[in-house]
Amino acid sequence: MANEETKLLVNRSGSGGDDESPTISINDHRAVGQQEAHTNSFFGATFIVINASIGAGLLAFPYAFLQAGVVPAIFVQLAFVVFILGALLILAYCAERTGSMNYQQVVERCCGTVFGVICQVCVVVYCFGACVTFFVVIGDQLDSMLRFAAGDLKHWYLDRRFTTSVTAIIVAVLSFFRNISYLSKPSSAGVFAMVYLVIVVVVRYLTKTFPPADKSIHFDHNWSVAFGAIPVICFGFQCHVSAVPVYHALSKRSVKRFAGVAALAMLTNTVLYTFAGAFGAMSFRDGTCSDILLNYYPSDKAMTAARVALAFNIVTSYPILHYCGRAAFFDIYVRIRHLPPVADELAPEPPVERVRRYIATSVWLVTSLLIAINVSDIKKVIEPFGGLAACFIFAFPGLCLFNVGVEAVGLSSRRRELISIGALFLLIGMFIFGENLALVIMRDSGAIGNGPNCASMEGASPGHSHNTSTNFTLY
Q: Which of 33, 97, 135, 362 is in the most buried spot, having the most CB atoms within 10 Å?
């Protein structure tokens, strides 16, 4: 009976086509209050969008800025941010139009089943790979922190496998939530943690308290290396997969309100990435590592605190990507098993879906953890992520808007605008994906170099130069 009385509350598609307001009973009012308790405030939604994108990708921005040149990189980033913000608005518009509650639903309802299935698979692969990477980065930071505190890692309780597994328990607590709005408070703390990291990088440059580096720039900025910075930018700004669930759970939901969320989030990300990229690259020049933290002494207390901040941020970012990947996996699962669609997260959860959520979350966490603590080199796994991120930012939203324009009735000028903008986004996405794939192939084959040498300070102490050449890449 309660399910029947609250049924009208499940559909929050906001089509706006009906002028009549339905009659709401007392039980319906209770359900409304229950739904509103599971929605995001304006700033809660903003923090989730920021935290979904900022994180480990920030570490690679100084290296990317070095590749393209600091000033050109800033302008390239600003140009891309305009399109990245536009893509978020396209997704919100399409989600509102189709009543979708996640990214892959938007693609399927706008572009058809085939593209919907392709998108589901891409989301699962991207999110799972990102989760594995998160655990690897957490392990890296824990090793650095414990080496600073204990001096060596010989004891079993300091072993990377044990410390990462303990951290995974905290991640698990945040990952079992059904609704993404529960992650707003952890996300806000994660964002402030990254603000601290950026502040330390800037202060170290301004006070000249960073390890010595070669101040001359001898790196040849050829076209292939300069273009290599674009996937890093895409990887760093990719929050689009999580943007649709955030929009769906936004209180007083509207495209206009979400535009404010997206604009504030992109402004914050742009400022943080610009400061980290510019000041990090100017600090170490040709010695800039693709993980900027490697450029600083492990004994640097402020940078050790920054490593703690990064680890904390990733702990709060993992559940967001896991949430999106789990939703895509469920969509694939119900399709294969010919089961009813997954219930709206703002509606009461059927018991069978609750059990399914617990099992899927547990398997996802354990599997990603096992891969992360046993993998020795994740470079080849995560290099294509910049190209795949470009598909989520440009290609899929462009395809959705293109199809909306094709199917639109009347207003020929409006249709032309939708089709033209959609085609532009689609072309940009395919270009970046192809360019990134070509760079990965050329780099693996040795056709092009990996860029400047990294002046890593791992194992070094102040007063002792320990420049280790490495070409590890975060994207």
A: 135
